[in-house]
UniProtKB/TrEMBL annotation:
It comes from the Eukaryota. InterPro entries: LEA_SMP (IPR042971), LEA_SMP_dom (IPR007011). Residues 26-80, 159-217, 224-282 form the SMP domain. It comes from Urochloa decumbens. Keywords: Repeat. Belongs to the LEA type SMP family. This is SMP domain-containing protein. It holds the Pfam family SMP. Residues 1-23 are annotated as: Disordered. Transmembrane segments: none annotated.
């Protein structure tokens, strides 16, 4: 499920911030994973309002400490400095829009938020207690613990490696597969199956072939995406098991070593497994 909420400011024509003025708080300051032109744009009040609306429509409320809250704080600071007007929006939200997407996992939802197509937040929202806390960075946790029937279903509420890979297909499904993604998928498949070698025709083999082909593809539309490879990942794995911290660390190491800048992809394989591992670890502590 996804909800896209492009929004134009009311009361006056839309204005567009061209870049970060001296002292202004830009998207790159609030969300370190953001890059390109978006990182240089100051966060405007109507940008924050758009994200708040999208969060409320999908989640039923605005997350405390989530992307919308972080944007609101930045926009308020920029308005006080006179960098942006109260009814101003950047083209990042007024034209390109924001998106809040979610995928079901046992016991909750993995939620990813985007501004102009770039992931600015990813967290896990529990079904039993609702999402009451979030994080502006990818991989931040957004669930609150509570009682209920789910407390007695430890095995059935663990997020598996396959489910975390499927979450990646939703969060970053339109991104072309790169060498770092293939390395992360290979590590994840190995942890799920316990096999040292690639499974013929398996996820790792598909990802490696896709990354090699993408390196030579002239056009983006000809490239294989993460969604192409990881859709229905659970069914494609010959074995699966709940994500543990060691799995997330192994996958993150593989992805980072094969990325030119040494950073994980926002909403990518490493980020999804890290979020799943946190949920599984916290669930285990709750059960004790």
């Amino acid at each position: 499920m996804s909800q896209e909420q492009p929004r134009r400011p009311s009361g006056q024509p839309q204005q567009q911030a061209a870049g970060v003025e001296q002292g202004a708080v830009g998207y790159g300051d609030v969300f370190p994973a953001v890059s390109g032109g978006l990182a240089e744009k100051p966060v405007a009040p109507q940008d924050a309002a758009t994200m708040q609306s999208a969060e409320s429509l999908v989640l039923g409320q605005t997350l405390r400490g989530g992307p919308a809250a972080a944007m609101q704080s930045a926009a308020t600071a920029n308005e006080r400095m006179g960098v942006v007007g109260h009814d101003q929006a950047t083209d990042a939200t007024a034209v390109q829009g924001v998106t809040v997407s979610e995928t079901r996992v046992p016991g909750g939802r993995l939620v990813t938020e985007f501004v102009a197509g770039q992931a600015v937040g990813q967290y896990l929202a529990r079904d039993d207690a609702g999402a009451t806390a979030g994080g502006a960075g990818v991989g931040a946790r957004g669930e609150a613990r509570g009682g209920g029937a789910a407390a007695g279903l430890v095995d059935n509420t663990k997020v598996t490696i396959g489910e975390a890979l499927e979450a990646t297909a939703l969060a970053a499904g339109d991104e072309p597969v790169e060498r770092s993604d293939a390395a992360a998928i290979q590590a994840a498949e190995a942890r799920a199956t316990g096999l040292d070698a690639n499974v013929p025709g398996g996820l790792a083999a598909q990802a490696q072939s896709a990354a090699a082909a993408n390196a030579w593809a002239a056009r983006d539309q000809d490239k294989t995406t993460l969604g192409d490879v990881l859709a229905n990942a659970t069914a494609k794995l010959v074995g699966d098991r709940p994500v543990e911290s060691a799995d997330a660390l192994r996958v993150a190491g593989a992805e980072n070593r094969n990325k030119g800048d040494g950073t994980a992809r926002p909403g990518g394989v490493a980020a999804s497994l890290a979020a799943a591992a946190r949920l599984n670890r916290d669930e285990a502590v709750w059960e004790e």
